[in-house]
Amino acid sequence: MKNLYIKTFGCQMNEYDSKRVSHQLSSLGYSLNDDIGVADIIVLNTCSIRQKAEDKVYSMLGRLRPYKEKNPDLIIAVGGCVAQQVGKKILGRHRHVNLVFGTKNVLNLKKMIEKIEKTGGRYVDVGANVIRDDTIDEKMDGYMVGAKNSVTIIEGCNNFCAYCIVPYVRGRERSRPEERILHEVRTLIKHGAKEVTLLGQNVNSYKDAASSSSDFPKLLDKVAAIDGLERLRIMTSHPKDLTDELIDRFGAIDKLCNNIHLPVQSGSNSVLKSMNRNYTREDYLSKVEKLQKVCNNITISTDLIVGFPSESKKDFNDTLALLRQVRYISSFSFKYSVRPGTKAASFDDDVSNSEKSERLEELQTLQKKIQLEENKKLEKRVMEILVEGASKSGENMITGRTTCNRVVNFTGDESLTGKIVSVNIEESYLNSLLGKLV
Ligand code: 5AD
Ligand code: SF4
């Protein structure tokens, strides 16, 4: 057996792609090993969503040089969004890299690595707009087995939010055939999965090209009907495409979890407009209200950007007010970062870095306060937890999540993994709850 080390940066789409990388290379005799020192191949699956993410990739690339000096046969491959965008230049600047492969070229990886194994050489493979349809079949590795898993249903994005690089590095939307998705979910369940997350940059615009009758709400119905599936989640939903029909599913489908990630980005209408988000604050709030009506325990999480070009203090205060109104149970918040080639890159990046930092700090402080208050409300309640395995929080502790997506740690045996158990919540913290098996 040869050893494969993968470092995954960024979002869940990249994590899914890393599973595909590992699956492809397993047929060449490579098995995943998280000890980089024994690696025969190192794969970096990169993220370019913000400058900081991209910088991390370059600094890791620098740290890989000594490994190659020690072992000249080591193959180093760089995939993901930075690879897609920067392409050939990575080979020029980093002499120790053998292969740069794009987000749409994961399917070629096996072939490329075989070529490098046989004849050496350095390659760039960032072309093609291959539709992702490589269902992971039943001969899967250990990484596939787990209480929860994810399945990509749609790749790419057509929305061109002014700040965002994704449409450039992941290309236009491509939905996978429905049959492939259903097959993959069934396969995961056969191997022990109880919870599946359907993934896409914007799952709401899922549409099976071959079947006019299949859109996202209908796909949800079909996935939910699969025997053995206990919980279903979706990630991510663009608010503008969250239709009433889809909202209704949160009431109608029991297996669909009581949580939705609904990135708002800003609470100011003028900022939303220049971000090209295609909804207003009022549209967003009305959808939140409808969600809460069909599913009264639903929790919402979000993404936020501070310091977008021309964001005034008042715009920022509108975002804070929105946070107070929606009361997100968690949020990812970022300082605006200019991405070359996007529409906003031509705007004046006029909020100073120190102002961005101050706004981010203020926003995160408020979010923490709300989050803790929301978590405190759960104390003394008995909640259903899907056990995911051992917890890092202490000896004999296991961990899992509520349907509303809170992490709960409690004393218990690892053999409960994959089971849904009742846990009494005893204490609440910012990012997790502590409970006791009932
Ligand atoms: N600057 C800062 N944050 C960004 N995001 C996307 N692009 C940028 C950018 N240029 C954030 C958005 C998105 C999340 C995945 O990353 O909030 O929802
Ligand atoms: Fe980026 Fe907007 Fe597409 Fe999300 S919807 S991936 S933020 S362009």
Give the oligomer, counting copies of the same chain as homo and different chains as hetero. Answer: single chain
Main sheet record: 6 strands, parallel
The CATH class designation of the domain at 2-125 is: Alpha Beta
Spans of at least 5 consecutive residues whose pLDDT stays below 50 are 131-142
Instruction: Note the overall shape.
Output: globular
List the strand order in the largest sheet: 2-1-3-4-5-6
Radius of gyration (CA) equals 22 Å
CATH architecture of the domain at 2-125: 3-Layer(aba) Sandwich
- The helix content, as a percent range, equals 25-40%
Number of strands: 19
Full CATH superfamily name of the domain at 2-125: Methylthiotransferase, N-terminal domain
Number of helices: 13
The proportion of residues in beta strands is: 15-25%
Which small molecules are bound?
5'-deoxyadenosine, iron/sulfur cluster
Q: What does this 3D model show about the protein?
A:
The chain has 438 residues and is α/β, with parallel strands linked by helices. Among the domains are: 2-125, 3-Layer(aba) Sandwich (Rossmann fold); 382-437, OB fold (Dihydrolipoamide Acetyltransferase, E2P) (Beta Barrel), CATH 2.40.50. It has 13 helices and 19 strands. Strands 2-1-3-4-5-6 form a six-stranded parallel β-sheet, sandwiched between helices. The protein has a five-stranded mixed β-barrel with strand order 15-16-17-19-18. Strands 7-10-11 form a three-stranded parallel β-sheet. Strand 16 and strand 17 form a beta hairpin. Helix 9 runs parallel beside helix 11. The longest helix is centred in the last third of the chain and has 24 residues, at 353-376. The protein is globular and about 60 Å long. It starts with a strand and ends with a strand. Mean pLDDT is 93; it is low at 131-142. It binds 5'-deoxyadenosine and iron/sulfur cluster.
